[in-house]
Structures are given as structure tokens and as C-alpha cells.
Amino acid sequence: MEKSLGRKKIAVFISGRGSNLKSLLKYSKTKKSLFKIVLVISNKSNAKGLEYASKSKIKNFFIKYSNKKNFEKQSLKLLKKYKVDLICLAGFMKIVSKNFIKRFSKPIINIHPSLLPKYKGLDTHYRAIKNGDKFSGATVHIVNEKMDSGKIILQEKIKILKSDTEKSLEKKVLKIEHRIYSKAIIKLLTTY
Ligand code: GRF
Asked: What is the pLDDT of residues 40-59, one digit of tens each?
């Protein structure tokens, strides 16, 4: 990615709670931050993350997901308007199309609560525990048109304890997510 002195402009796509958005915003407000969040887009009108974006005075939009084509068309308009350099998917529950990736033409990344390539999709913690895995974790990766695939930028793992439940593991992995998402963005902005 092209390096420049100005902070890179990021858009965050969400569908719900927005705790990763919150952690990115917190980081972006630090002096050393190489990026700023200029836009939040949600496909759900009641996403908690939208409220948080409003409170933080970040431009935010709900775009109805009547169909992929329409959602992506409207998103692309906003991405252009706000001169976005990088899209971060954070709990965004839709798969972006090949056409969208091509037309945006800059990086799109995602955070996922498993040690990819293991456990793409939903119920990652349940599956890790059920399979008796010794480790779980979180992954930040480049987005391509296949779900939870694409080059891995950063991954951090954590031991699964015998006492762990789906809930306790989710909590621990979420903490990792909040720590590594900003780190992964910085890695992307400085090394690619
Ligand atoms: C996170 O676990 C993320 O990895 C997954 O969905 C969850 C979203 O959480 N894709 P939040 O909305 O960021 O709180």
C-alpha cells in the first residue's frame, strides 16, 4: 500500500454490537495512530455500533440490505465521497462480492474469532471446544470473495482450558480481537 504522511482513512463495516469498532476508534484517537475512522456503514438499522459512531461524531450510515448489488453500490458511493483508503469489516455479517472488491480497488480486511483457516463462518468457539482443540484465537486477514479466506495479516492464539465454555472462550478471544485489529492495520499500512 502506498505510504504517505497523512493518516489513512478507514471505513468500518458492522452489523451489530460494534466492540471491535470501539477498540479501533479508541486506538485511532491516540497520537501515534496511522489511521482515522471516517465512515461507519451498517446493514442493520439497530446495530449498537451505529449509536457509538454517532456519539463519537463519526459519519455513519445504515444501508438497507435489500440485495447485495444495491448495498454495495450505495456503499461504494460513500467510500468515494469520504475518500476511504481501507475497509475494515468488524462483525459485518455479509460476504462482499468480487465486483465490490475490484471496484473499491484498495484493501479490505476482516477480523474473525478463530485460528483461520480453521472454523470459517459461525459458531467458532463451540466448534473449537467440541473438537477438543488445545488452542483458539483470532485472525485478521485480507478479504477476498470467499468467506473468511484470504491472506492472513495477523493471528494470535490462546490456550483453551478444560474449564472453558463457549461464553468464556468468546470473551477471551474478543479481548484478543480488540488488541490485534489495530496492530494488523498498522502492519498492513507499514509493510505492504
Ligand atoms: C467478533 O467476534 C468478530 O470477530 C466477528 O463478529 C464479532 C463481532 O463483534 N466477526 P463486535 O460487533 O465487533 O462486538
From this structure: 999 999 999 999 999 999 99
CA angle 124, 126, 131 (to 5 degrees): 95
Cβ of 44 less than 6 Å from ligand 1: no
* Residue of higher predicted confidence among 192 and 9: 9
Arithmetic mean of pLDDT, 143-159:
95
How many domains does the chain divide into?
2
Residue 113 near residue 145 (C-beta atoms within 8 A): no
Q: Quote the ligand 1 centre to 103 CA distance (angstroms).
A: 25
Note whether 116 and 60 are same-domain residues.
no
Ligand 1 lined by 113 (C-beta under 6 Å): yes
Query: What's the domain range around 100?
Result: 1-106
Residue % of the chain over a pLDDT of 70: 97
